[in-house]
Amino acid sequence: MARLVCPETGEEASSDTLEFQTSTGGLYDVLHSFPTGLTRELFDNRVAAPRAPGTSGVWRFKELVDPDLPSAAVVSLCEGNTPLYTSPQLSDYSCIERLWLKHEGANPTGSFKDRGMTVAVSRAVAAGAEVLACASTGNTAASLAAYSARAGVRAVILVPESSTATGKLSQAVAYGARTLRVRGGFDVAMNLVRELSRTGEVALLNSANPYRIEGQKSIVLEVLQQLAWDPPDWIIFPAGNLGNCAAFGKILRELRELGLIDRVPRLAAVQASGAAPFARAFAHDFERLVPVEPETVATAIRIGDPVSYARAVRSIRETEGTVLAVSDEDILDAKAAVDAAGLGAEPASCAAVAGAKKLALRGVIDLGERVVCVLTGNLLKDPDTTLAYHEGRLGPAARANAPVIVEPDLESLRAAIGDGNS
User: Fold this and answer.
1) Longest C-alpha distance within the chain, in Å?
2) Quick one: pLDDT band at residue 148, thresholds 50, 70, 90?
3) Of 54, 138, 212, 399, which residue is the least packed, with the fewest Cβ within 10 Å?
4) How many domains does the chain have?
5) Which domain CATH number covers 278?
6) How far apart are CA 207 and CA 201, in angstroms?
7) Planar angle of CA 369, 374, 376, nearest 5 degrees
């Protein structure tokens, strides 16, 4: 059976608890007793019909994600099975010849959050939770709202009043969640929902919930499977609340212990310069985390006091990884490159590409190394930022492609087509 254990103190909790903070303020990890005899072939044999009815790119790896949960208790929207792209344009842009892009924007609600939510919602409902809650910059809200609707339970969402992207807010509302816009940033909302969960009024579905981390491990599992279980040299990803950093390090540790891989990729967590407490802590050998008042155009990682900090530190240390910050200008430039390559992603996703380029130019990534960048969210998550950029209201105009108003006649149309704006 799975055990919930604090990695710092050894304190344990029941596997079906809805309270995920330890007595010392830490967070639990899920420790599994994995079935014996797990092989790559077991998982490869389940890929025959991706996107077929009932197929999930998370539950395909059930033995590594949640072997104890009864299959009848799974709440799924056929998440996962996301593409791994190559792009000559982005290889040139990033100065990385052997570059892949894992696009999590292809998940049901348009972000990687669905991978963790299917596991955490399944566990919460199986434990008897009737109201599920989260604080969110937007993507977690959309995902929780959808999976709560799928499970037939209530969802309560707390989002920052003034900085939640329209695409994400509309999803939470459409899926029926009780959506509360809190006066303050994400960290204010997070503190409120954690207090509410401690009273037992709601079940917490943020990444403090360790079952979220278990589902997010499947990103790395899919990447490895798509690369024929030959690990890349680097996995690079945006970093906000640090759930993915925690998840990636955890599954790499588990896979090596199980003998399913023989070497571990290095992890690179990329933050926006205006919301970079993890990068600052890394620069001082993780001596301590100093929360910041976050400000960045990449709203999905606009977090100043990340919940999964201790877990993420372990991941970076164990993989000999790195943490860096990139400017909003770098993020927007990388986003324009990703969009122009036909892939498209929200701004926070493109921090990964901006970070990869920065590491390549510094010589941290060697010529010939194999790199996977994780694009965490769909382009349509934040359409306002995309339009503001191309209309010249945000960032440099070097890649701008503003819509053009034309008169309804062929002469005007031909003139507009020929002037290079389309």
Assistant:
1) 75
2) very high
3) 54
4) 2
5) 3.40.50.1100
6) 18
7) 170
